[in-house]
Amino acid sequence: MSDKLQKILAQVGLGSRREMERWIEQGRIQLNGETAKLGERATATDEIKVDGKVIEHAVKTARRVLAYNKPEGEVCTRNDPEGRPTVFQNLPKLKGERWIAVGRLDINTAGLLLFTTDGELANKLMHPSTQTVDREYAVRVAGEVTPEIIENLKKGVVLEDGMAKFTDVQFFDGDGYNQWYHVCIMEGRNREVRRLWESQELKVSRLKRVRYGCVFLPKQISVGKWKELDQRDTDELAKLVDLPSVPVAKLDPQEMKKYERELNRQKTRQKAAPKNKGPKRKVRIDS
């Protein structure tokens, strides 16, 4: 079975299909030793290179999605030049695949971070043009939040990279100087939630993502722990971005025991310790 090059490259997590089309037009893609052309197709046995590097693109028969409760102090890169702990260090190991982060959270933001082995699903969930996937955050704000401020944040504020707004702002808890709010936003621009509050001369003292699309961060997943979504929950997430159902990976008994041992070994922590240098259905993940 063959697929268009841009689809294959998107599925392995290199970017959106449209972006992959641009790469092909720019001559960055080679197919079996020749510069690829837009419209060409490939099979699992064809050699594909991007900028001279061979890309593993064997046909995947299963999709995996993982929910991770990120602590403050971790960065969302695979390798950090400063030696800080990364979110990828705490994920289950894969053979022949890799975890792709669905968006990112900055080092001082905690909460729900999704990972998947399906690059196309990841790209569609993150893409700015996708208007069916919102994000919900719990935010502790230092300062007086007036009705006028709430209205401003919902109408829209011009930031340095363009207009931004919350689709919803709800008071949650607290009194006095520090109060908790829940906010919803359709985008994932860098520090967008913090910058929106800062535009109103208010400081965010705590920030935690509690929902991504239809997936809520369940209370039973402690900080620093993860859990995989089952078939139903994975299908609901894919349905948000008009992708078909794909079987979720099923582990054999031996793999399941290894998986459970690894899950039990995960360390619960409120904040990641610095790494030492040197040697609309609301899906809830059932335990």
Structure characterization notes:
There is one protein chain. With 287 residues, the protein is an alpha+beta fold. The chain folds into three domains: 3-54, Structural Genomics Hypothetical 15.5 Kd Protein In mrcA-pckA Intergenic Region, Chain A (Roll), CATH 3.10.290.10; 65-128 and 215-262, Pseudouridine synthase; 135-212, 2-Layer Sandwich (Pseudouridine synthase). 22% of the residues lie in helices and 25% in strands. The chain has seven helices and 17 strands. The strands form four sheets. Strands 7, 8, 9, 10, 13, 14, 15, 16 and 17 form a nine-stranded mixed sheet that branches. Strands 3-2-5-6 form a four-stranded antiparallel sheet, with no helix packed on it. Helix 1 crosses helix 2 and helix 1 packs across helix 3 (119-126). The model is unreliable at 267-271 and 277-281 (pLDDT under 50).
